[in-house]
């Protein structure tokens, strides 16, 4: 094991080398192994979501440090720990930082036009946006980078890089312009389907690569983020206009928004995570 790998990498290799047998034992083992790997890939986001819920329920109202500021400092500590224990590489951290900045810029605009707001006070903020909010975008980038590496993603019929970058740029611009002109998200959904329609992602779970259409993978990740968003708004991390009188589930339209935003993260992570064919040498 080299210094560039975490202790988890060695533990993961041992799990992948274990032979549970055949039949239902093999099926169950693969299912549990898949869940374990996914949970480990979600470490940043999972810890942040836990802190959102825990502070919502237990953080003292009279604490000298605002809850949002505590969350900012805690998120910084988590990110530092990810690097210290080699759970993320510095190259991945740089890309995650870019997505962090991209998300924060969008937050500044969206809060200004009233798409959502942050109901609590904070010292560590820019405009109406507490600094912990950028780490929620960083959590998506962290998951994307870690799941890519943990499952050793390979791809077939991956589209040209210029096409993915053009799509990601159009998605980001539309998050701003749809407030003033025609919302192009359905055109962007169609563009995503067109560009990635033949792309398969191969993921290594136990001893072999399995595959699924990449578009389905995008949808599953976006659905998971939408579930997490419901928990985060329940914890008063932020509020949409229809939640100010009391919490209610986030509208399913936000699933589509996360689908598009997650694709931006995917394209950014592809900067440092190679697009390889199945069985290509590591």
Give the secondary structure arrangement, pairings included.
Elements: H1 7-17, H2 24-41, H3 43-58, H4 67-84, H5 90-112, E1 125-126, E2 129-130, H6 132-150, E3 154-156, H7 161-177, H8 185-196, E4 200-204, E5 209-213, H9 214-234, H10 253-269
For the largest beta-sheet, the strand count, sense and barrel status come to:
3 strands, antiparallel
Quote the distance from N terminus to C terminus.
15 Å
Strand percentage lies at 5-15%
The total of helices stands at 10
Q: H/E series, N to C?
A: HHHHHEEHEHHEEHH
Assembly state of the chains shown? single chain
Roughly how many Å is the radius of gyration? 20 Å
Low-pLDDT residue intervals, each spanning 5 or more residues: none
Return the average pLDDT rounded to an integer.
92
Q: Using the alpha-carbon principal axes, give the shape.
A: globular
Roughly how much helix do the residues carry, as a percent range? Answer: 55-70%
Structure class: mainly alpha
Total strand segments: 5
User: In order across it, which strands form the biggest sheet?
Assistant: 3-4-5
In short:
With 282 residues, the chain is mainly alpha-helical. It has helices spanning 7-17, 24-41, 43-58, 67-84, 90-112, 132-150, 161-177, 185-196, 214-234, 253-269, and strands at residues 125-126, 129-130, 154-156, 200-204, 209-213.
Structural summary, described in words:
The chain is mainly alpha-helical. It has helices at residues 7-17, 24-41, 43-58, 67-84, 90-112, 132-150, 161-177, 185-196, 214-234, 253-269; strands at 125-126, 129-130, 154-156, 200-204, 209-213. It has a three-stranded antiparallel β-sheet with strand order 3-4-5. A hairpin with a 4-residue loop joins strand 4 (200-204) and strand 5 (209-213). Helix 3 runs antiparallel to helix 4 and helix 9 packs across helix 10. The radius of gyration is 20 Å and the shape is globular.
